[in-house]
Amino acid sequence: MLLRNRLLSLNLTSFLSPPSPLPKSASFLFSFNKTIAHSTHKRPESKPDVSASRAAKQPMSERARFAKTVLFVPPGVDPEDVTDEMILPGSNIVVGPYAGHSQIKEVEFVKSSGRAKDCPKDDRPEFAILGRSNVGKSSLINALVRKKEVALTSKKPGKTQLINHFLVNKSWYIVDLPGYGFARASDAARTDWSSFTKGYFLNRDTLVAVLLLIDASVPPQRIDLDCANWLGRNNIPMTFVFTKCDKLKASKGKRPDENIRDFQELIRENYKQHPAWIMTSSVTGLGRDELLLHLSQLRNYWDQ
Ligand code: GDP
Prior knowledge:
Strand content: 5-15%
Strand order of the largest sheet: 1-3-4-2-5-6-7
Shape: globular
Mean pLDDT: 77
Number of helices: 9
Number of strands: 7
Distance between the termini: 37 Å
Structural class: alpha/beta
Largest sheet: 7 strands, mixed
Low-confidence stretches: 1-55
Order of helices and strands: HHHEEHHEEHEHEHEH
Bound molecules: guanosine-5'-diphosphate
Radius of gyration: 19 Å
């Protein structure tokens, strides 16, 4: 709790009063040149961008500029109108009008696919969960769905290198993708993973966003940066889900919030849009409900 409060104050209190000049903690986060695109990538044209038209009429305040450069402002929210209460704890995510029912009532394994074109063919929105092996993917999936057998299914021999679809509440999918970066994986194995998974990212029309899991208990890893940059370059919407945020500083290492800041500083220049990010822990439950709420607003917007 102490850690969470400290991180919260570090990330969020600077937003309470309009900064001029920007507070030091702003540099903790991203500082993008371009505005946030208010879309979840597949159907941006289907929604009127209220805030964009308003911004065209009025000069942007320091406060709004700060919101646009640091926060993930979802569709339907004007950066001018963002208040501290609208920001999900331990994240840069603003909750907007599309947030809705978010709890998971039922989940069922649907299928494992070896190729993108073998994935379920329906119009339900989906979120792909991706990360280095050992990042805490199974633990996070367990924590989200509260059913151990779901993550276990993905860990069964023969399934770990497949695209596994789980149907949630009969209305949307969690998609478990193969982990990357096995310590002893050869370059060839990594290339295989890339072409396989890249095919999925580039061809899956119902993909709302990728949840890219990053271990916050260790310094930024090259392979995670490469993955984030590839997704960014290809305009695949993503949310950085920082895992293991309960882990306190190791004897020599940095704290999770310091690792998160380092990671963000290393990737910030590669994004046209400001990615959402959130801190989680499968041990304490940190971020679980907030992440589900975030998914609900992305999904409901996509669904319209
Ligand atoms: P996967 O290979 O990405 O599916 O990773 P796992 O979910 O199997 O987790 C890898 C290791 O990290 C296990 O020892 C977990 O107990 C541990 N772990 C996962 N999530 C957390 C977390 O939030 N906090 C802590 N402290 N450990 C975690």
